[in-house]
Amino acid sequence: MTDVESLKETQEKYIVPGLERGLLLLCEFSRQNRTLTAPELARRLKLPRSTIFRLLTTLEAMGFVTRSGHEYRLGMSVLRLGFEYLASLELTELGQPLLTQLSNRINYPCNLVVRDGRSIVYVAKVSPPTVFTSAVNVGTRLPAHATVLGRILLEDLSLANLRDLYPEEVLETHSRCTPRTVLELFDLVQSDRQRGYVMGEGFFESTISTVAAPVRDHSGRVVAALGATIPSAHIGDERIEELVRQVRQSADELSRLLNYNPNVAQAATLMRG
């Protein structure tokens, strides 16, 4: 038996089935499925309705789900856990004031995102008091390969890493700008890396443009993407240079607060190589 097989067997031995089922049930709720009925959950999880009923009753008693008639939705306990976790991140604590300052200067919504597998997750957001309102909120998840902010967060991955993350031959398309293959995505991301920032007009949504830059930690690794959202399919040439400068300046400042030193990080990279 290999070490991996041994570890897997040990993990399976100590898994609590009831807890696993409860967590899987909570994961069925999403932006597309904000409410679900017990029969729907039973069908999705391939579990008896009696089991689903017991799980829902327990979760409801603890505030993790709420019920309205026959429909269930996530409760405040889930939201509280998520927001308290996000607020506990050093990245968020350090980044929030910088986002506020940047948003005040450029008068556009500004965001901080991290990567979770194939998704980006918004962990901080500041919006100015304007008519334009962004559709994303803290906790929103979007596909990494199809977003400007996601491209920033894929910069450290090699072609082999990307192939492991996206084993499919054709990537899911979200707009005419979405790269169709892993190789196309890799080439795009490497160009972004060399440039030091990304400016995407209508990349994910046709009427929205984004300017983003990487945030690095002490090791030089990209740990977040900091960006500004512009409610326009095209940014005038006279504004691009200033927006890029402001966004990069804020991302560099957050990197500095995370103890990023370009010279030290470069030396560490050479030693690893």
UniProtKB/TrEMBL annotation:
Q: Does the keyword Glycoprotein apply?
A: no
Tell me the superkingdom of the source: Bacteria
SMART domains to which the protein is assigned, alphabetical:
HTH_ICLR (SM00346)
Annotated IclR-ED domain ranges read: 77-260
Keyword check for Transcription regulation, yes or no: yes
Q: Name one Pfam family in it.
A: HTH_IclR
Key words, A-Z: DNA-binding, Transcription, Transcription regulation
HTH iclR-type domain: which residues? Answer: 16-76
Looking up PANTHER family in the UniProt record yields: HELIX-TURN-HELIX TRANSCRIPTIONAL REGULATOR, ICLR FAMILY, TRANSCRIPTIONAL REGULATOR
Q: What is this protein called?
A: IclR family transcriptional regulator
Q: Which organism is it from?
A: Stutzerimonas tarimensis
